[in-house]
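User: Hi! I'm working on a homework problem where we have to compare a predicted structure to a textbook description. Could you give me the structure for the chain below?
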Amino acid sequence: MPVSADLGKSSGGDLLAQRTASFEPDLASAGAARRLLQDALEAADRLRWVDAGALALSEVVTNAALHAHTPFDVVIEVRTERLRVEVRDANPALPQQRRYDMRATTGRGLALVAAVTRECGVHSFGSHGKVVWFSLGDDAAEESTDDLLAAWDVDGDWERSEEVAPQTQEVVLEGMPATLWLATRQHHDAILRELVLYVAEHDDVQVALALADTARGRVSRAVVRAVEPAQHAGTARPALPEGHPAPLPAVPDSMTLLISVPRTSAPAYAALKAALDAGEQLAAAGKLLARPGLPEIVAVRDWVCEQVVSQLAGLSAAAWPGTAQRHFETAVNDTIDKAPWDDTLVRDADRGVVAADEANRIVAISRPLADLLGWDVDDLVGRRVVTLIPPRLREAHVAGFTRVLTTGEAHILGVPLVLPVLRADGSELPCRFLVERAPQSSDRSVYLAWIDADVEPQAAPSTGG
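Assistant: Happy to help. Predicted structure tokens:
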């Protein structure tokens, strides 16, 4: 039976029980909705559906609380052969399945709903909102998980829709790093979702999450809408050299992003910065599943937020300064991965190898590789990997590494590559790479890059003059 994105017809035998309730957009509503479901199933003597139904309902209600930011209704209908649940909110933005890796801390909720239900879908009421629904029954689902997920693949996202503001101002984000922001977006998804869950159970963090989500969604949608036409027109370029397996999207060489924002929206961007700062601190302290963001990830969202706030205050636009800044080579989060790691394999290696941790920090390098690149071993250990990456590839490297931290997708592991390495004197040396995870000698995650010179080094790029 095909899965429909429409409401469908009520079927499944005689009506045994029906419950309807309205909820506020907070996480406590998920528990109340589950109790409502259990009450209906008990009344209908259909408790065999309670586990799968409660799991699916919790996910849909949590998404409504996190992203719709409007009151919502839950409608439960129990029939002899079928359970049907609808969650109705007033936000017109529709959900879309995000296909993150199995290690990601976010992005799999809709897959979970599809996997545990017989049918699921969404129906739009246009500007009046939407209904997300699912059904369960004793008959086994005929559709595969991929078929069920097709019901969610509609235009839109779990992001707050925007009302047309009577007074708006155009904000200029000059030199917007599209590759970096698209990776940053995934990190923001994970941090904000977990922050909402944390705030629901703790009172030590006070953040305006609805305002933060509004600001985040506005920027992310603007970036996507700017990149997609360039991709369709063939004017976007790959972020990494040909043959690199990382699935970073092609983007324009240079992008000046224009965003029309309400004149009163400065508090939303201040709230986004504050919320993400709080989330980063909790992640660094190990209180969230998400990893802390790399320094460039933090810098680009700070730049975006500060540009909106300052331009709304009448100041001129300031371009993104780029990731080729010296302080990024040493700016590491020292709270990450302090567990000891045995670096004997690297220190004693008679060939080129460098080890880096999940802070993107060099924790060991072999002397042959340090000598090849014109560095002392002691001067490189403790610096970040971007020290060895040509400036033009740094944003792509940070974006790819952020995907690894956020989604678990590590496409380069075990794949031979040829990439340039930056030497201490500024010249570039084409090298053969093979990246792998280090043997697990502790709780620390470490990656090894085996590196050998490929051809003669190139001269340092001219700086003009």
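For your comparison, note the following. The CA atoms of residues 3 and 151 lie 6 Å apart. The radius of gyration is 25 Å. Good luck with the assignment!
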